[in-house]
Amino acid sequence: MPSTRDIRRRIKSVKNTAQITKAMQMVAASKMRKAQQSALAGRPYASLMNQVLGNVVYYAGDITDPLMEKREMRSHCVIIVSTDKGLCGALNANLMREAARFERENTVYIAAGRRAAQFLARTKRNLAAEFTYKDAPLFGEARAIMRFARDLFLEGRADQVSVLYTQFISTLTQRPEVVTLLPLSEIKAVTAGVDGVKAPEDLMHGSTEFIFEPTPAQVLGALLPHYLNFQMYQILLEAKASEQSARMVAMKNATDNAHQLIKDLTLEYNKLRQANITNELLEIASAAMAMQ
Asked: Which residue among the candidates 39, 46, 49, 88 is catalytic per the annotation?
């Protein structure tokens, strides 16, 4: 049975832990607000990009582009967007569970985030490249990731390029999603169906006629790389908003659990202390009766 000194030490240790988790919760809450605002601010532009590209593809007629070439899938490239740090609940675990479902033999991986790279190394999967991105993702970081994946596709080393990331739904809900970026046979928004963002088929094919300058092929050739880069950038924003939201919730739960544990230990300490006082009083009373 623990002594009162042991319980006091444990209470002090749990209080110190609660202070740390509370501080981490406040830091994550501050970063979460900025990350959520960035992700939500990018969704209208992503929606408009899908509308513009969808209309270009629809009205330009029979135009082919190397990025739109459909091939028999012998090799699959998967970009995994994870976090660099832990302490964000089950976010990374859910992501890696989805990553493990891809066939090991014909899949090559690109890791965006240290946790994804560690998972791929631990499971001995084919890691082609590793990238990092900041708490406030930059467009240049997304462009570098997409350029590497695009080169794999154009060189024939990958017949399809997909992205596995965590989509931000709300502060309490984040969902692993797989989006196919290449080949661009279908225009699909990474945020379609989330918070009122319309699907591409609801945005295109209106009554407006378009005139392309200089030619539809040149417009499409210039638009497709930018479309892919921004899709990757929006994915990084969604992943970072999910990470900070999950970390804030995890640290809040840890702080609440620590406070509840302190209450339970304090109650146990008071009971043990009261029992010790009662025993001492009984011993004094027994000694006094024996001396009479």
From this structure: 88
